[in-house]
Amino acid sequence: MNLDCHSPLSIIRRGGVVFSSSPNPNILASMEKLEPKSRTVLEAVAEFDSSKASTLPPSTTRPFRSLAISTISDSQTLIYIGTARGKIILLSLNPSSVDIRDSVPISVDENGTKQENSTGSNVSSSKGLSFLRSTSISDCPVDSIHVLVEVQKILVVSDGFIFLLDLFLLQPGRRLSFPKGATVVARRFRSGDSTSSDLLRDGIPRSELSSAGQRFLQKLGGGIRTNGMKTREPESLGEGNCLVAVAVGKRLILIELLLSGRTDRIDRDADMGGVFMVLKEIHGIEGIKTMVWLDDSIIVGTGNGYTLFSCITGQSAPMFSLPDSSSPPCLKCLLKDHNVLLFVDNVGIIVNAFGQPVGGSLVFRNLPDSVGEISSHVIVVKGGRMDLYHKRTSLCIQSLSFAGEGVGPCLVANEESRTGELVVVATPSKAICYRKVSAEEQIKDLLRKKNFKDAISLVEELECDGEMTKEMLSFVHAQVGFLLLFDLHFEEAINHFLLSETMEPSEVFPFIMRDPNRWSLLVPRKRYWSLHPPPLPLEDVIDDGLMAIQRAGFLRKAGVETATNEDFLLNPPSRAYLLESAIQYMIRYLQVSREKDLTPSVKEGVDTLLMYLYRALNRVDDMEQLASSENSCVVEELETLLDDPGHLRTLAFLYASKGMSSKALAIWRVLARNYSSGLWKDTVVEDETSDTCKNVISGKKTAAIEATKLLEESSDEDMVLQHLGWVADVDQGLAVRILTSDKRANQLAPDKVIAAIDPKKVEILQRYLQWLIEDQDSYDTRFHTLYALSLAKSAIEAVEMEINQQTLDTATSEKTNISDVEIGSIFHNSVRERLQFFLQSSDLYDPEEVLDLVESSELWLEKAILYRKLGQETLVLQILALKLEDSEAAEQYCAEIGRPDAYMQLLDMYLDPQDGKEPMFKAAVRLLHNHGESLDPLQVLERLSPDMPLQLASDTILRMLRARVHHHLQGQIVHNLSRAIDIDTRLSRLEERSRHVQINDESLCDSCHSRLGTKLFAMYPDDSIVCYKCFRRQGESTSVTGRNFKRDIIFKPGWLVNR
After folding, report:
1. Which parts of the sequence belong to the CNH domain (predicted)?
2. Is the torsion defined by CA of 665, 669, 672, 674 positive or negative?
3. I want to staple 1039 with a disulfide (CB 3.0 to 4.6 A). Which of 72, 98, 414, 1020 is the partner?
4. Residue 949 located in a structural domain
């Protein structure tokens, strides 16, 4: 341990203010009076008054000078009291037989007056506390008592000597002859995770010192000097032995007290049968008044300050310097945190075993007479008053009085264990036992006083200190929530409910729905310390709370103080406001609870009751959102609640979410038909009051849209067709969506659908048939024919409407065309475009039936398509060329026919239109110009009319004749070239076949390099030669060089074809 690495700290007092050079000082500058919190941590359980003890003369027992306590077992705790006359009194306390309720405590308020409360100490009964015996060890005061449970002894310091006694004072006390002049004794406390230290630092394992030779060498040369002092030969530090440090003048002597029975190589006191061993002597400092030994560090206090010693090296380092006018030093070992509390006047500083400050500082009311510790609190006593301070928060938690002012110096002692729950305080003539109140009782007490914040703070502190589980924290949050709920603080109550991880949502069900109900058996019967009434509906809770506020107001006027909220007394809230607030925050709790992993039955209760609360506040949007989303609502519980005109939409959504589509569709049908009568209003358009008609249409369409969502997924033909009509009345596009939906598992029967469609709603039928043919790939000729007939009828009506519109007087109105007529259509293309496309693309309809329908109409292009399907080429050409005068389409049709006589037939039609029409010379000239080369000039000349102007025909005929001559000559050239190529190819083939190769005895195969001799061989076009075996392996198309002659052809020069 190197003490040089720790920078020393100093505290200087200036004008009543304490300054510290600590890296993390938290010392309060003000010495103002600290107001204690109303928390009960300790309660008095027993009292011993020496003046009333008949077996002890008061002159021999008073005043008390030292105090110690030790728990031997669960049923016995021993209390040792040292007096100024050298006497030790032993008391026995049975904690299990003491009832805190037998005590009548008295505390001191802020003004110093005594009050009876639960934090006092005046005990009228000493049940469980008994006097065992007393013994006298000297005529001088007993300075200190130390209980050494490890060796079953108590160590007493009196008149500079150390005495050892048994725990029950059954044997006479024996004085140790060494050391003499002891002023302060401190036993060694070790942390649970610390390892055994080698106090000698000789490097020799203790097991090796067991032999006589090793011990002899150690005695001669191994005596270690620490700061110049020589130590005795130590033995191994046995487990269960006790180490103590004794301050004698300027020396610190480290002694090990051994268990009885270990007598090999030990120092035995001549005057007694006890066993001890001196481990080390350290040169210290003079004037040691207090001392603590923690692990390997010994902290001592003198009038000049505090010093840290290492029990390993003996080195020292100053920690704090005290001013000249400072009070005597005081040290207290805090066993729970394994720290040390140092005092500078009334300021306590907590340091660790290395002397480094940890946490904050504690500022006490006065300089304490004595200091103790219990759990997470520091206990200080002064002038008959005891204060408890929390170590971490530095707050005064409890303050109580156990004696009157001027009683003299007081003492406090606690059990030297981390789990000790007993504390003893003493005046010069009286000793009082206190027991720590359980955490549960402390919390209950705060909750009874309605100190909810302090209760939660206490629970969080206990959890942080490891004294309370997280489940208990959740339990307290739930308990506080219920108390706040009955106090009408709904927001805070719900906040605590949400902080509780163990509270179940079913616990709030009784506040929403009266018992008995569907979920009564789901409510857990938890014990909440009986601090609040049983659950009641929120209306009853509010009524009882308002009545309590009214009573509190009367009591206040009568001068009686109550715990009722001050704001409620000054400004009592209305019942309606409280009820609305309660429902709102209960909604918030249930909304959060929906996200938890709940059982199905609890989910049903949460969602159903949440719908109840929404309905109570008329939150229509939230109701519809809950009903339309995935939920666990019980429909039977909500049907009556929602069966009114204002909430039918919610009921419809709820039916739909539960798969009750028929009931939901019935509601949407009613809403769509009765919207204009004011049965319900669409929230989307509710503000648009300027256009009532628009609102009605929008409301109806909303109902139709919601019904469409259900019908799109339904495979029930009867239900779909039943509701198809009213949806189509609202919007034909939605009806088409229903019929053509691909969301349903099984598609509807086309025959039933076609029969159910209103004949007046032609577009629905057409769109459905189009979907069957194009999307569903239907090959049923009936549907193709029906679709064509329906389109033909619509086209005829559109043409007639256009003709009628053109005959009207257009002076004051603009002309309307077919596209204007079809503005309201659900199709993007005009009906004639769709008809023409379908007639051309489909081959499954009956063209004769469609032709019979359009025969007398003006649908000439459609007729041409139908005639083409029937193969009547002449009629098609007549319509295209003469009726529609579409020369390009007529010529294209002739090209599709592919015969030259078709062009001649078209030319005849142009030259002789008949029906009194003039010849179409321009069209005829266009035909001759584009396709004259494929016509016979003689036939053309024969067909030409004598009336045709020569200037129109001369150029065309001349060009046609030239083309004929050109084609003839071009054909001769191609014929001769082809013949020349054929001759050249034959010649090349002959040359290849006439090639020879000479093989001799030295000829080798180009693949395997074996001699050919008389073997069969093959020669490839690239002149490579292989044996027949390699030829079979290589194949006839690939040579030994890897060239594939099928893909890489060899061209050899000829007289016409060159490479």
Report:
1. 63-415
2. negative
3. 1020
4. yes
If asked whether residues 837 and 912 sit together in one domain, one would say no
- Indicate whether 849 and 963 sit together in one domain: no
The two three-digit tokens of residue 471, written as one number: 């489940």
Three-state DSSP string of 382-444: ECCEEEEEECCCCCEEEEEECCCCCCCCCEEEECCCCCCCEEEEECCCEEEEEEECCHHHHHH
- pLDDT tens profile 493-523: 999 999 999 999 999 999 999 989 999 999 9
Amino acid in the structure at residue 888: E
In terms of domains, do 523 and 668 share one? Answer: no
The answer to whether residues 454 and 559 belong to one domain is: yes
Q: Residues 421, 41: contact at Cβ < 8 Å?
A: no
CB 92 within 8 A of CB 130: yes
Last residue of a domain, one of 951, 979, 994: 994
Q: What angle do CA 500, 504, 505 make, to 5 degrees?
A: 105
Tokens at residue 170, please? 């059954």
Q: Could you read off the pLDDT of 458-497 as tens digits, one per residue?
A: 888 888 877 788 888 899 999 999 999 999 999 999 999 9
What is the count of structural domains for the chain? Answer: 6
Residue 576 contacts residue 584 (beta carbons within 8 Å): no
**CA 685 remoteness from chain centre:** 38
688 falls within a domain: no
What is the SS3 assignment for 910?
helix
Q: Do 879 and 890 fall within a single domain?
A: yes
Cα separation, 452 vs 429, whole angstroms = 40
Structural element, H or E, at residue 494: helix 490-499
Measure the N-to-C terminal CA separation of the chain; round to a whole number of Å: 101
Cα-based angle 75, 76, 82 (whole degrees, multiple of 5): 165
Average pLDDT of the residues in 546-566:
80
> DSSP letters along 217-237, please?
HHHHH-PPEETTEEPP-PPP-
Map tokens 């396709």 to a residue: 931
As a 3-state breakdown, the chain gives helix, strand, coil percent values, each rounded to 5, of: 40, 20, 40
CA 931-934-939 angle, 5° bins: 105
For residues 548 and 606, state if they share a domain.
yes
Same domain, 471 and 572: yes
- Whether the CB-CB separation of 361 and 394 falls below 8 Å is answered with yes
Question: Domain limits at 965?
Answer: 872-994
What is the model's pLDDT at position 13?
Answer: 36
Residue that has been written with the tokens 């040359």 in this structure? 991
Distance between CA atoms of residues 638 and 513, nearest Å = 13
